[in-house]
Amino acid sequence: MIPAPFEYHRASSVTEALQLLTTLPEAKLLAGGHSLLPMMKLRLVSPTHVVDLGRIEALRFIRRDGQVVVAGALATHWMVESSDVVRGAVPLLAETAAKIGDVQVRNAGTIGGSLAHADPAADYPAAILALDAQMVAQSPRGRRTIPAGEFFTGLFSTALASDEILVEVRIPVPSGATGSAYLKFAHPASGFAVVGVAAVITVDAQGRCAGAGVGPAAYRPARVEAQLKGAALDDKTVGAAAEHAAEGVNVNEDLFASAEYRAHLARVFTKRAVLAAAQRAR
């Protein structure tokens, strides 16, 4: 449980962090530390350089910008969970943050670190996909915006380039009568999502849902969404649509949950999340 030797660098600004990434291309970025440090202790990764972003206060904020909620990458889970801005405008994100780990994790872990790490069992990715959010990445070349649907590319893999830092998450505020819900079957030891499902339902508009923990990366089940569009969201209709929740997914399998059991949970929790979101939209 002791990491391999590495050099520690503490950046005081995004510019300084980017300079370090340019000169140390093999470096790993450290935010809250709840993803990278356990992997280093287990020697699943052994970076020779670690760049700590934790002191960059310019990235630790949550604000509303018109019809968008903007969260800095270093906003902690507790900040997201307790923010009046988030609770009022995008309650799904606050609900999701409240279900991450325990109090200690939520006070140190960050939204940017979690999303950039892209753990398939993390909670945020499903909510970010269902909310149709955008990630803002910064590199020496400037900033670019990455839609959530293009951000998660595979197991622990994102669209971020090696010289980019995730600096902001931009979440559009839903319009109209909208309800949302995030439900998960948590692993009893780690609290990670064996299966997690986020759903956003807007009256007289298309609903969105996304799953986490099921496959190598968070995803939106296209057939579920297609069957829900314009349908009466009753128990029978939603149940029929939820049967396709794991369709086309290379379902994860581990010592805790077989692929068959995980696919079953995906169907069950998709139905529950969609019905809960629909009830809240009324």
Brief rundown of the structure:
Helices cover 34% and strands 24% of the residues.
Instruction: Label the CATH architecture of the largest domain.
Output: 2-Layer Sandwich
Structural class: alpha+beta
Q: What proportion strand?
A: 15-25%
Helix content: 25-40%
Explain the layout of strands and helices:
Elements: E1 7-10, H1 14-23, E2 28-30, H2 36-41, E3 49-52, E4 62-65, E5 68-72, H3 77-82, H4 84-89, H5 91-98, H6 103-108, H7 111-117, H8 124-130, E6 134-139, E7 142-147, H9 148-151, E8 152-154, E9 157-158, E10 165-172, E11 178-186, E12 193-202, E13 208-212, H10 222-228, H11 235-242, H12 259-280
Parallel strand pairs: 1-3, 2-3
Antiparallel strand pairs: 4-5, 5-10, 6-7, 6-10, 8-9, 11-12, 12-13
Helix pairs in contact: 10-11, 11-12
Q: Descriptors for this entry?
A:
Uridine Diphospho-n-acetylenolpyruvylglucosamine Reductase, domain 3, 282 residues, Enolase-like, domain 1, alpha+beta, Uridine Diphospho-n-acetylenolpyruvylglucosamine Reductase, domain 2, single chain
